[in-house]
Amino acid sequence: MYPDEIKKELASIISMVKVKIEIEKGFGIDTVTFTNTKVSDAIHQISPNSFTEIKSTETPVVAKSIGIQAFMNTKETKIKLLEELRHEMLVCHKCPLSKTRTNLVFGVGNSMADLMFIGEAPGRDEDLQGEPFVGRAGQLLTKIIEAIDMKRSDVYIANVLKCRPPGNRNPLPEEIIICIPYLIKQIEIIQPKVLCALGAFAAQALLNTKAPVGTLRGRFHDYKGVPMMVTFHPAYLLRNPNDKAKVWDDMKKVRDFLKNEFT
Ligand code: SF4
Fold it and tell me: Domain map of the chain by residue range?
């Protein structure tokens, strides 16, 4: 190969490996295994300060990264990882909802958010606009966010399902099982300090329970070490406005938790 072609190939290998390391590190994996000695040699050549303990042998090579956690925490990295994930999801046809969606609804908001809301699935407006919580329920969610002295742009918002169930029917268990790994990846990239599950589907899917939202709401649960408040879905509140006070109580707990985190 000519030197330019070699350079190009090495650059593409490095970029591939870096993204793999970022994602795996973000998902709690401390070490990354390379089976290709050419790859580890290439990393060592191009970015010698980025890695330690890289050995080029015939057996699988383990490279422990240094400074990757700090790298993972930068806004640019999170945006990049979310973008990678979005591109992966845009071509997702793992379940039949891909055939009926207008747009895939990835998620929206601040990649450095301390607070992340998780809803159920896109509705008609969300499907048309490709953004979660933009209809009437979305407007109510915006008010809920503002009620705890935050802006919509401060938080991150995503759904369990990324494509609209036809006619706004409830998500099917098999659709949730197939789609939820995407949400889990989003949470792992964003690393929020608090999660807020809106409604039964988000709460039950993340907590792996069948308990009704009425018994789950109002207190923090543990989702892989992240406190998760459960409250009613804004769409439910539109139908049952008398329960707004309960949601306000739940959100005050979220607000106080975040306040205590920073004082
Ligand atoms: S709902 Fe999820 S799993 Fe199904 S097609 Fe959409 S992104 Fe893929």
Answer: 3-72, 95-261
Decide if 40 contacts 34 (C-beta within 8 A).
yes
Task: Quote the crossing angle between the two packed helices 37-46 and 3-26, to the nearest 10°.
Answer: 100
| DSSP strand pairing (108-109 vs 115-119) | unpaired
Longest dimension (CA), the chain: 72
139: left (phi over 0), alpha (psi -120 to 50) or beta: alpha
3-state secondary structure of 151: coil
The per-residue pLDDT for 5 is: 58
pLDDT at 46: 34
pLDDT of residue 89: 97
Q: How far is the centre of ligand 1, averaged over its atoms, from the C-alpha of 166 (Å)?
A: 13
Check residue 33 and report its DSSP letter.
E
Question: Helix 200-207 crosses helix 173-190 at what angle (to 10 degrees)?
Answer: 80
Atom of ligand 1 nearest to the CA of 101: 6
The verdict on domain 95-261 having CATH code 3.40.470.10 is: yes
Task: Tokens for 170, please give them.
Answer: 């409830």
CB atoms near residue 111 (< 10 Å): 20
Query: Which residues of the chain are modeled with pLDDT < 70?
Result: 1-72
Q: How many angstroms is it from 243 CA to the middle of ligand 1?
A: 31
- The neighbour count for residue 46, using CB atoms within 10 Å, is 13
